[in-house]
Amino acid sequence: MKSRTASILIGILAMVCLGLVFSVVYPFTTSDPHASVPQNEQMTTSDEDAFSANGSIVVDGEVALAFDGVVTADGAWYHRLVEGDMVSEAYQSSSNGTVYHRWRIEGGDEAEQRRESLTEKNDTEIVSEERNGDRVTFIIEENGTGSTEPVSGAASVIVNSLSVARYESESADSSTDTIYKPQSGWYDEAETYRLTDASGDIRADADTHVVKSANVSWDMTRPAGTYAEYVLARSLGEEPNTFRTTYEFDSGDTDLEQPTWVDEADST
Predict the structure, then answer these.
(1) pLDDT tens-place string over residues 79-124
(2) Which residues of 125-145 are buried (b: 16+ CB within 10 A; e: fewer)?
(3) SS3 at position 51
(4) Mind listing the pLDDT tens digit for each residue in 187-243?
(5) Is pLDDT of 34 > 80?
(6) Nearest CA to 227 among 70, 65, 1, 26?
(7) Helix %, strand %, coil % of the chain (to 5)
């Protein structure tokens, strides 16, 4: 009897040890990110002709990307983009009018590279250049033929970035909307990563899945192919990157005034 009991205990311990080995080698379960759901079920941006939108991606408290913009029914648009040390603005008064750009760049080398690329283009002209310490500001005129508004593209970048997480959905107060809540977990893609402390929500149209607003955050550890790799990274002091993504979209036409810096460019 004692021999049989000992055999059972040894078997149980062997199973526990085996489980511990597997836990070090690979997580028991992984999640599929939103990017893996069928295309017609994925969150997306609107294709409306007139709208305003803004959004940002903040990593570890630093703005990695931020934009805001307006597109009107008659083809006018304004777009502002923050990306690293560069802030750019663009404005077009009509679908075939002149496009005006203002670029504010930190660092002389980056500004010089930008100037060289602009002078190589036949359809652009630098109408103003100002220096204030390490900051250089260019105002540029561009032939509007063939130009397209960049607001939709920036909105797509923000919305697509949301797809790295899995979401649980629930009906919103309005029957026409769905609320998506990001989920922590292990994600097995080309590079396995782990999301922790996922929070916030996304509001999207229940039928079209067009995102109306988002305010979500999570910590991402990457790569994290195994528990051992994850624990080792944390023990070595490699903290996960904290991501916070925000987005707002409002449909409908709105008045768009010409920026004052465009008036200044016209007067030069």
Answers:
(1) 999 998 889 999 999 888 899 999 998 876 777 787 887 777 778 8
(2) eebeeeeeeeebbbbbbbebe
(3) strand
(4) 877 778 889 999 999 999 999 999 999 999 999 987 765 655 556 655 655 668 899
(5) yes
(6) 26
(7) 25, 40, 30
Query: Nearest Cα to 100, choosing from 150, 151, 144?
Result: 144
- DSSP of 111-158: HHHHHHHHHT-TTEEEEEEEEETTEEEEEEEE--TT---SHHHHHHHH
Helix (H) or strand (E) holding 230: helix 227-235
Spacing of C-alpha 169 from chain mean position? 20
Q: Tell me the pLDDT band of 10, cut-offs 50, 70 and 90.
A: very low
Q: Which of 234, 241, 190, 233 is nearest to 217 (CA)?
A: 241
Decide the pairing of beta strands 77-83 and 86-92.
Answer: antiparallel
All structural domains of the chain, each given as residue ranges with its CATH number in brackets, are 27-44+153-251 (no CATH), 68-148+259-267 (3.30.200)
What sign for the dihedral angle of Cα 230, 234, 236, 237? positive
- Residue 204 CB partners (closer than 8 Å, separation 6+): 43, 177, 178, 180, 210, 211, 212
Q: What is the DSSP letter of 26?
A: S
User: 0.85 exceeded by the pTM?
Assistant: no
Distance (Å, whole) CA 182 – CA 219: 12
DSSP 21: H
Give tens-digit pLDDT for 222-235: 776 565 555 665 56
